[in-house]
Each structure stands twice: as structure tokens, then as C-alpha cells.
Write a structure and sequence with these properties.
By secondary structure, the protein is mainly alpha-helical. The chain folds into two domains: 1-81; 83-114, no CATH class. 87% of the residues lie in helices and 0% in strands. It contains three helices and no strands. The longest helix has 71 residues, at 8-78. The radius of gyration is 48 Å and the shape is rod-shaped.
Length: 114
């Protein structure tokens, strides 16, 4: 049998390309694992932040409700107080009618007439 000569360079090139593809596949796999880990970390961090924001929103909502009820009760009670204009009218009337001054003036007039 005659020995056939094979072109081993062709097989070497295929083998080299196969190793390159395997290395690229390994690198893609490693990158995919890193991306997956980062995605999981990001999801956990975002879930925690969302939970904190929900807690803050509930706290703010209760505070707003308390302020709203306070304002409603205050506004219903404020109608029972006198208005500034009413108070000024009463103050003017009190100044016009001062019983002590009235008595003193009438006493002074009586003394003058005697």
C-alpha cells in the first residue's frame, strides 16, 4: 500500500480554529455569568429601594392624613371664634363706653355745679 501523504496543516488550522472558538465560547460564558450576577444584584438592590420607598410613601401618606384631619377639625372650630373685624368693633365700643370715665366726668360736673 502506498502511503498517502496527508496535509496536516489543514487539520492543524481546523484544530486551531476549534480551540479559538472554544476559548471565545468560554469567554462569552464567563461574561454571561457576570452579567447574570450583576443583574441579580441590581434586582435585589432595586427591590430593597422600592420597599424603602413604599415604606416612606406609607409614612408620608399617614402624615398627610393626620394633617388633613387636623386642618379639618381646626377649620370647623375656627368658625366659633370671633373675627378680627368683630373684635375691633367690640374694642371701639368698649373705648366709647368706659364706665369709670363716665362716673368721673359726672362726679366732676356735680362738683363744679355746687
Amino acid at each position: 500500500m502506498p502511503e498517502e501523504e496527508y496535509d496536516y496543516s489543514y487539520f492543524n488550522a481546523i484544530n486551531s480554529k476549534l480551540r479559538d472558538l472554544e476559548e471565545k465560547n468560554r469567554m462569552v460564558k464567563d461574561r454571561l455569568i457576570l452579567v447574570g450576577e450583576n443583574l441579580i444584584e441590581t434586582k435585589e438592590r432595586m427591590s430593597e429601594e422600592i420597599l424603602n420607598l413604599k415604606k416612606e410613601m406609607i409614612f408620608l401618606k399617614t402624615n398627610v392624613e393626620r394633617m388633613k384631619s387636623f386642618i379639618e377639625s381646626f377649620s370647623s372650630e375656627i368658625s366659633q371664634f370671633t373675627r378680627k373685624e368683630d373684635f375691633e368693633i367690640l374694642a371701639k365700643q368698649a373705648k366709647m363706653f368706659q364706665p369709670l370715665d363716665f362716673i368721673r366726668k359726672s362726679d366732676l360736673e356735680k362738683l363744679k355745679n355746687k
